[in-house]
Specification:
Layout (H helix, E strand, L loop, with lengths): L2 H10 L15 H6 L6 H14 L1 H14 L2 H13 L4 H22 L8 H11 L4 H23 L4 H10 L1 H13 L10 H10 L10
Helix pairs in contact: 3-4, 3-9, 4-5, 4-7, 4-8, 4-10, 6-7, 8-9, 8-10
Length: about 210
């Protein structure tokens, strides 16, 4: 990866990039409130499942296909990404962040990127900016995991060092998922992360919430 590409990825995937990523917990807030996630170990298990069997893997596959898609194929990918959202909050999570990413990145790069679900918008931007796909996918998953861990650090609560231990323990898994996603077909999409999906639905009805999802 060139230094120029690295700069772009570091900017796009940074918590400071103005897409509001810090305000989403991907259903984790409910899982913590219910007592299912209560320490570093349970957070690592929860997040490992989300990466391997849930939205992490699906987003990586969608991102890879968006990187190569144009025209009608890109429209179909957007529809598919929205259809894969198992709840109203998860729909909000991917569409609101994707729209914000497209708006900011269009203004910065001069490319006209339409509002799309986040992994699709990121794939389109990366192709137009010549960011290598094999670097993009693992770093996207890293950012996805780090954002959820940050929510856990704030809400469990969990120490910053423990949060980094959880992230470090997921590095090999993230690399494996990224390699698989790069060559996966759309037929490989699917989720078996049912409790995470249910948690995102139950989060909608929590009386007090810190996060949007």
């Amino acid at each position: 990866m060139s230094t120029n590409s690295a700069h772009k990825l570091l900017a796009w995937l940074s918590p400071s990039y103005p897409i509001g990523a810090y305000s989403y917990s991907h259903g984790l807030e409910y899982a913590i409130d219910a007592g299912d996630v209560h320490d570093a170990h349970s957070l690592q298990i929860w997040l490992s499942d989300v990466l391997q069997y849930g939205a992490g893997r699906n987003d990586a596959i969608l991102l890879a296909h968006a990187y190569r898609a144009d025209g009608d194929a890109l429209t179909e990918l957007c529809d598919l990404a929205i259809a894969l959202s198992p709840s109203a909050e998860r729909h909000l999570e991917t569409t609101a962040q994707g729209a914000a990413f497209a708006k900011v990145t269009s203004a910065i790069t001069g490319h006209d990127i339409s509002a799309m679900p986040l992994p699709v918008a990121l794939g389109v931007a990366a192709r137009r900016e010549d960011v290598p796909l094999n670097d993009l996918i693992p770093l996207y998953l890293h950012s996805f995991a780090a954002n959820i861990i940050a929510a856990g650090v704030r809400f469990i609560p969990l120490g910053q060092t423990d949060g980094q231990r959880v992230l470090h323990a997921l590095f090999d898994q993230i690399d494996d998922i990224a390699k698989q996603a790069e060559t996966a077909s759309l037929d490989d999409l699917g989720s078996a992360c049912f409790w995470s999906d249910i948690a995102s639905m139950k989060h909608e009805n929590m009386t007090t919430r810190i996060f949007r999802t």
